[in-house]
Design brief:
Blueprint lengths: L3 E9 L4 H12 L3 E8 L3 E8 L2 H10 L3 E13 L4 H11 L4 E8 L5 E8 L2 H10 L3 E2 L2 H5 L2
Antiparallel strand pairs: 1-3, 1-4, 2-3, 4-6, 4-7, 5-6
């Protein structure tokens, strides 16, 4: 199994917070591969996959933001109808609970990639491998 490390950045839900994190990444030379932003009335959670996780976390924390690293499963599937449904059927069939997911552009225009947060990465990886689903590594993502 080769988990990808996702960075979660916790921010106040105020103007210019996201811009501040983006500026930190820009100045650090870190490139974003996938991004999800969720918010509540008081705070937001930015989830990102980047080309250099360690450098990004160090830079974000040095700027005073709270950040955590979470292992996630990242896959690439054909960009055609029913493919995500197939993945979800595989995970559900093995009793893997999906917490959240978000998509990003695949390595080609014929594929789409997903970041998947589940309750058991190892079980998910085994099920996806058995189902013939391509799993991406951090190296794959950094080279995109």
């Amino acid at each position: 199994m080769s988990d990808v490390r996702q960075i979660s950045v916790f921010m106040d839900n105020k103007p210019n917070q996201l811009a501040g994190v983006m500026k930190i990444l820009k100045e650090s030379g870190v490139n974003i591969r996938a991004l999800s932003l969720a918010d509540t009335k008081d705070f937001g959670i930015l989830r990102i996959i980047v080309n250099d996780t360690d450098k990004a976390v160090d830079s974000i924390k040095a700027a005073g933001y709270a950040a955590a690293v979470t292992p996630v499963v990242t896959i690439s599937i054909p960009d055609s109808p029913g493919q995500l449904s197939r993945v979800l059927d595989i995970l559900g069939g093995e009793g893997v609970n999906l917490e959240y997911l978000y998509a990003f552009t695949g390595a080609s225009d014929k594929s789409v990639s997903f970041v998947i947060r589940v309750d058991d990465n190892e079980m998910a990886a085994e099920a996806l491998t058995k189902g013939g689903i391509i799993q991406l590594t951090e190296n794959d993502i950094s080279e995109m």
